Amino acid sequence: MTNLIKYIVLTGISLNFLACNKTLQVAETSSSNKNNSETVAVSTKANELITPYRDSMNATMDEVLNTSLVDLEVGVPEGLLGDFVCDLTFDRIRNEAKVAPDFCILNNGGLRTPIMKGNITRGKIFELMPFENEIVIVEISSAKMLELIDYIKTKSLLESSRKAGVPVANFRMMMAGGEISNIMINNRQYDKNKTYRIVTTDYLSGGGDNMTFFLNPTSIEKTGVKLRDAIMDYVIELKSRNLPINLALDGRIYNAE
Q1: Does residue 35 lie in a domain region?
Q2: Residue 66 maps to a domain
Q3: SS3 sequence, 191-207?
């Protein structure tokens, strides 16, 4: 279980306890020793209250959901962690949407920690995606698509960092010497006159991480699915089929020097 999650939950419980148990508060005293005694008593009572919650949460967050046979990390122009999260997100929404989306785009900066080879706990998924981001489908114009493509190109040519590169799914971009040579979307040649339906998060659809091409879209649909839940569900579903996580880079964003 992560320290951040422990801190938020246990601090909230402690404060609530202290607020509700007024009989433990010192209204008036002239003895510093008595103040110390009362503080110790309050701390002891608070600890007694939160211990079962802490133990229960530790057990929940330490639950092993699956295992990974490879290290999943962000990368540029492509990384296994971004491929993994984008693919599961796109497949989830494509299977549930009334009108199928064309592709998915997320951001490396939002994937907060790598998933290293070995056991994957519930707490690790919370570390990876600590935000309450909802998955949405955004339809943008052909002009906005040009901005999106330029955004991917620019970030794909940056030097390696956590915010370099752009995770995508059902989208392939080939570059040569830093110039785009080919784009395939949904196994079809990119059509510069077409509007596209894109799976992303509500944070990015609002222009987060400088994705301003999502502002003033042709349409936007909420899915009601949290990105963290989609990741969690997929990891658990693979486990139910006795499948560990195992994948390799496939060159979906590729720059031939």
Answers
A1: yes
A2: no
A3: CCCCCEEEEEEHHHHCC
Indicate the pTM of the whole model: 0.79
Answer whether 251's CB lies under 8 Å from 173's CB.
Answer: no
DSSP assignments along 7-44, one per residue: HHHHHHHHHHHHHH-GGGS----S-HHHHHHHHHHHHH
Same domain, 109 and 154: yes
The structure tokens listed for 149 are: 């493509």
Average model confidence (pLDDT) across the chain: 85
- Residue 145 sits in a domain whose CATH number is 3.90.780.10
Q: What is the pLDDT of residues 167-217, one digit of tens each?
A: 999 999 999 988 999 999 999 999 999 999 999 999 999 999 999 999 999
The letter for the amino acid at 189 is Q
Q: How many domains does the chain have?
A: 2
- What band does 50 get if pLDDT is binned at 50, 70 and 90? low
Q: What is the 3-state secondary structure (H, E, C) of 69-95?
A: CCCECCCCCCCHHHHHHHHHHHHHHHH
224 vs 111, 128, 180, 198, 217, CA distance in Å?
20, 20, 35, 16, 19
Residue with tokens 């993994």: 84
Show the domain range for 203: 71-256
Closest CA to 130 of 108, 111, 114: 111
Is residue 46 domain-shared with residue 138, that is, in the same domain? no
